[in-house]
Design goal:
Elements: H1 2-27, E1 37-43, E2 47-49, E3 52-54, E4 58-65, E5 72-74, E6 81-84, E7 89-92, E8 98-101, E9 106-109, E10 112-115, E11 119-124, E12 130-134, E13 139-144, E14 147-153, E15 156-158, E16 166-169, E17 172-174, E18 183-185, E19 194-197, E20 199-201, H2 207-243
Antiparallel strand pairs: 1-4, 2-3, 5-20, 6-19, 7-8, 8-17, 9-10, 10-11, 12-13, 13-14, 15-18, 16-17
Helix pairs in contact: 1-2
Length: about 240
């Protein structure tokens, strides 16, 4: 009898987790370069009762990122850039961690090229250089008076399995062995991804789809909750029958 409760409870837990993930996606629908998360479920082992295979519920499988490229939004800011294709920028956080991100909100702070709110690129910008821009091949250039000078070069890094990266917030990811070794890519070379200056990549969240999925999950939760209620009523009836 109690197996009915456990089966239904596992379904309720799964739907609650799905709603949590979907809500997080919606909350970040306007976050630059945010990649939506997707949850999968797995069936638990079946029990054989009276020659019938009876399910014992479900469990949460994996929560993975969907690394589909988001739409490009024009900002016209010379230090806003977007990757046209696969890959990530590499930066170092204030804590000294190497992280990867598709957030292209570059800025010059304290004489160094940084990505806003994430970390440093390691590219120094001399004080006498003005008009810093980033070209489609990743070259960072500026002007000393009327002379155009090259300051450094931004590389792109890709992974065999981007889902192996560990999200740490602020649309930044840490490397793990599951991602495979970072593959360094020169932007704009041959068929390699290019860097689009004056653009930012928007999130890849489809708000309408996420809202529809939330409604569906809530209905599924209500249905499973009714199963718990029914199981409770049957248990009460069984106990009353035993007493008599």
């Amino acid at each position: 009898m109690f197996s009915s409760f456990y089966t239904a409870a596992s379904g309720m837990e799964a739907q609650l987790k799905k709603v949590e993930i979907l809500s997080q996606n919606l909350a970040n629908a306007n976050s630059i370069s945010y990649k939506q998360q997707r949850i999968s479920f797995q069936e638990l082992m079946y029990q054989k009762i009276d020659q019938m295979n009876i399910g014992t519920g479900t469990k949460i499988g994996e929560v993975e990122r969907v690394f589909k490229i988001g739409a490009m939004e024009r900002t016209n800011s010379p230090l806003d850039v977007a990757i046209q294709g696969r890959g990530f920028f590499k930066v170092q956080t204030p804590e000294g961690k190497t992280v990867y991100t598709r957030d292209g909100r570059f800025n010059v702070e304290n004489g160094e090229l940084v990505i806003k709110d994430i970390g440093k690129t390691g590219i120094k910008v001399p004080q006498d250089v003005t008009g810093v821009t980033i070209e489609e091949d990743g070259t960072v250039v500026g002007y000393k008076g009327k002379d155009k000078v090259e300051i450094g070069k931004i590389k792109i890094y890709d992974f065999v399995n981007p889902n192996g990266l560990k999200g740490i917030g602020k649309n930044a990811f840490e490397w793990t062995e599951n991602a495979g070794k970072p593959i360094e890519i020169e932007p704009g070379k041959g068929d390699n991804p290019k860097i689009a200056a004056g653009f930012l990549e928007k999130s890849n969240v489809n708000v309408i789809t996420q809202m529809m999925d939330i409604v569906s999950s809530q209905r599924n939760y209500e249905l499973v909750a009714k199963c718990v209620e029914s199981a409770d009523q049957i248990a009460r009836m069984a106990n009353q029958m035993k007493k008599h």
